[in-house]
Amino acid sequence: MVEVDEQNAAGYVSFTAGSYGAGARFWEIGIALLPQWRGRGIGWQAQAMLCDYLFTHTPVQRIQAGTHAENVAEQKSLVKAGFQLEGVIRSCEFRAGQWRDGQMYSRLRDDPFG
Ligand SMILES: CC(C)(COP(=O)(O)OP(=O)(O)OC[C@H]1O[C@@H](n2cnc3c(N)ncnc32)[C@H](O)[C@@H]1OP(=O)(O)O)[C@@H](O)C(=O)NCCC(=O)NCCS
Q1: What is the DSSP letter of 98?
Q2: How far is the CA of 114 from the centre of ligand 1 (A)?
Q3: Which domain covers residue 37, as residue numbers?
Q4: Residue 46's pLDDT band (boundaries 50, 70, 90)?
Q5: Whose CA is nearest to atom 17 of ligand 1?
Q6: How many domains does the chain divide into?
Q7: Residue 114 belongs to some domain of the structure
Q8: Confidence at residue 95, expressed as pLDDT on a 0 to 100 scale
Q9: How far is the CA of 43 from the centre of ligand 1 (A)?
Q10: Which of 10, 51, 91, 93 lies 20 to 30 angstroms, CA to CA, from 105?
């Protein structure tokens, strides 16, 4: 839950575990803010704080996040939170009647940030 104060939730963040092989676990994060809280700097800060939390409390080297090609707000938000674009995931999602490409971003434990 992303809280702006004790009374109000602005949205939520999520993290799910994945693995590219034995001993190579990573987290994939997600976020959704309620419309009235978007565009105020909460999104990138919440994702940066979630990375800090996950790198502090788990030994993973890698946190990844996928987004849509048209989601400029999330792309900018991820870059501000220390992520780098890795590439295009071709035809990864069937949405609104057609297969669509996604974009994959990642932040590594030792990437420069802040
Ligand atoms: C995507 C989302 C998390 C971004 O968080 P946010 O709080 O709205 O964005 P921020 O205020 O942190 O802005 C981060 C950057 O994106 C820019 N930005 C924000 N909204 C934008 C928009 N609609 N279009 C273009 N740029 C935008 C900001 O200007 C800022 O860049 P800047 O510092 O260069 O000015 C939020 O808008 C959201 O929850 N959207 C709906 C759900 C969603 O798309 N989740 C991600 C699914 S992959």
Answers
A1: E
A2: 18
A3: 2-108
A4: very high
A5: 73
A6: 1
A7: no
A8: 94
A9: 6
A10: 10
Beta-sheet strands, E only, within 45-113? 62-68, 84-95, 98-108
Residue 100 within a domain: yes
Q: Which of 10, 82, 19, 85 is nearest to 47 (CA)?
A: 82
Residue 43 and residue 51 in contact, taking contact as beta carbons nearer than 8 Å = no
Note whether residue 58 is domain-resident: yes
Structure tokens at 95: 């949405």
Q: What is the CATH number of the domain that holds 102?
A: 3.40.630.30
Within-domain flag for 33: yes
pTM of the model: 0.95
pLDDT at 29: 98
Residue 52 — φ and ψ, nearest 5°?
-55, -45
DSSP reduced 3-state for 111: coil
How many other C-beta atoms lie within 10 A of the C-beta of residue 101? 12
- Determine contact, residues 75/103, Cβ cutoff 8 Å: yes
Token pair 């792309």 is at which residue? 75
